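I have a small job for you when you get a moment. Would you make up a two-line entry for one protein for me to read? No commentary is needed, just the two lines. Write everything out right here, beneath this request.
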Amino acid sequence: MTETASGSVARGGKRPRKGLKMKRIFTKPGVHPYDEIQWERRDVVMTNWRDGSVNFEQHGVEFPEFWSVNAANIVTTKYFRGAVGTPQREWSLKQLIDRVVGVYTKTGIEHGYFASDEDAEIFDHELKHALAHQVFAFNSPVWFNVGTKSPQQVSACFILSVDDQMESILEWYKEEGVIFKGGSGSGVNLSRIRSSKELLSSGGTASGPVSFMRGADASAGTIKSGGATRRAAKMVVLDVDHPDIEEFIETKAREEDKIRALRDAGFDMDLGGKDIVSVQYQNANNSVRVSDEFMRAVEKGDDFGLRARLTGEVIEKVDAKDLFRKMAKAAWECADPGLQYDDTINDWHTTPETGRITASNPCSEYVHLDNSSCNLASINLLKFLKDDNSFDVANFVKLTELIITAMDISITFADFPTQKIGETTRAYRQLGIGYANLGALLMATGHAYDSDGGRAVAGAITSLMTGVSYRRSAELAGVVGPYDGYARNAEPHKRVMRKHAAANDDLRTIGSMDSKIHSEASRQWSECLKLGERHGYRNAQASLLAPTGTIGLMMDCDTTGIEPDLALVKFKKLVGGGSMQIVNQTIPRALKQLGYQQEQIEAIVEYIGEHSHVVDAPGLRLEHYEVFDCAMGERAIAPMGHVRMMAATQPFLSGAISKTVNLPESATIDDIEQVYLEGWKLGLKALAVYRDNCKVGQPLSAGNGAKKDEVKQVEAAAEPEVKVIEVNRPTRRRMPNQRPSMTTRFTVGGAKGYMTASSYPDDGLGEVFLKMSKQGSTLAGVMDAFSVAISIGLQYGVPLETYMSKFVNMRFEPAGMTDDPDIRMATSVMDYIFRRLALDHLPYEERAALGIFSAAERAAQQRGEDPAALQESLDRETLAQSAPIEEKPKGEERQQASLSASGQELTLESHQRFTADAPLCMTCGTKMRPAGSCYVCEGCGSTSGCS
């Protein structure tokens, strides 16, 4: 443990000062941490997913040999500074770490954080060792900015404020723009703005906050299109008692209906499409700030009053249950709004004398004062799992001390986007330490994510982390003083510390692992309370759980933030290009911990590699299935399992948790109501949900029409009198003896096949033949039968679009990479076949409605051109050709394009069961995966808003 010392150290004739006595964790005296690492040189080449061209190339970069190719690629492309190809360009991880840590150490020395030069050297070496060994990572702005000529911005999370004045609203637009330009996100509560049901002093009616949201949304979209590769990340919050709350709740759901209608009419509503900009409110996450009063009214079925913004008087009463239902319905339709539980948040607020907590950052984990910011860092928990499967409590404590010290130092030298944010952050010094790889740690130790044992481990670790953080904050207060706003908030701050300690006392341990962690946590909280009484605290906030998108990949984490494992298999990038499918390395360790022999482990791992799940795995006992449950797939964790895990850790966090509770497509509005209600009862601070495919359903008109037809049929069947019903039967339109056809050779996941598609002379697909194995084999027979069934259906008039809706995204082996540049990844042979048929036989407008584009069309979209115009140009060029030109066979051309882009594989979708409407990365084209309430690209590290 680090000690606080009153030393006689003097610098430059200044008076003696106190300082921290640092102790070594991983390093040795006289040995630089880099000297104990085996370094190697690599080449980083990133290719364009649209045409296979190289969009980034740097040779001879230097990384530790144990860093994965993916982690090295992401750090090289995102975090190395300097123009590529110039001597100023960073080429080694050593340079990157030295650039960042050098500023931290220098600032710590200058501001009296260390008792001696030796302590400063220990701090420097330990920080470099931990970063180089992927034990923890600072958030992205630190790596972008610290030690460069750019402003030293270290925060990723910002909260703004806006008042009921036009000047304030316009200032809000400006501040958001500055933050978005820097690649960060912000949140704001608009509840101070008068509703559209209230009068202005001039006698007119106010516009209302939803109206002003349009301007802010357009601003965010414009800044995004002005050069950023990810959408602007923002959060908009409205209090549940605001008179415009119903309009706010339904805003994005109505826009989602518009998206479906426009897509059905042939407009390009795909991600990045030219027509999607006509839809509003798409650049923000929306959350309703609900009170305990409202939630109790929901339980009792009472009315709830909506209040005027200036006078506070009730101007309208609504049925609380009905309003709550509207929230759940809107979330069922489009995933917004989420909920923020206002009274819970402010009950754990350390500085209420300064002001209430009204909003959050875009991912909802940072909740504190208006006009403030928070810098984040996350610990890789798997690094503390010893060979004997015990948790390294002692080193975890020491590392947490080290990180909190470094994070507090960063506020001293940091720059901020606005003066107000800088003043608040320096006065309250909010920190956000968190962790990643919890899911991997639980699985490796044989704990099911949704179990009492798993929650006990998570709760104990979180309590220990926050207890150590505040104990270190009290020590820092004894050395360099408490935060400026502590004096006026001393009593409420200490009250919250006692609440954390009491929650720790109530934590129920299950096994030896969590018992040992909890025992140390209790000791840390006891010491924290004593030191806090003596010195106060250096930081108003210490901990939260961020999504750890890019930095999770930087640390080679299997799981991000508080999330469980996404799937049991993944693709590993190889040096020199290419990839291989591997079973997650935590699985063999978990099986060994559960008592299986090596032969059994090998058999189970082989089964998982083939099937991507554990159901019916040879020798695996049923009671152990739950250990391998994942966020998606054959055995997906139930929604309430995610909520219960959040509840197990929330009492030990200063802030909140970035996490979206995923629900299956079959989930009902009642299910979402239950999740929101339980989140409040279990003491969460914020909660968001996502129902699979809620943003890409069938056109509403078709669904409603079908339901009406069903109702009519039921009513007709109930009639007592006999009626004659004429049924129009389809007729078969047989193919002529001679018909045009095209044969395509394809490869899906290494399995080769041939497809011959024949058309009617007057256009229109009418026949498909498939060959994938030797004649007489079972697979050949099945494919023949399937071909006949599809062909007959087409000849009877079944539209190709109908088959598309049934077979696209179907998932089974073989699956994976294809040799087709237009379709880089297929979840099955059927998925590939019908995507290829769509590209070959459907017009652009119909394919656009289904979200299927060729490589050339995607490239045109990225350049801001009209893909439909491109298609018309290609058609005219084809008609103008009077003689055939010699060209490579289509299969060979696709294979070469695929190989040229092999560094940017579309990873994991077929095995990790990603949601069908997860966005494609706008940088490299890889299907992104969830990270908290955001998305992260495993191909290049880009995120949809989280750092």
Notes: Residues 741-879+888-915 form one domain. The first strand starts at residue 3 and ends at 9. The two ends are 30 Å apart (CA to CA).
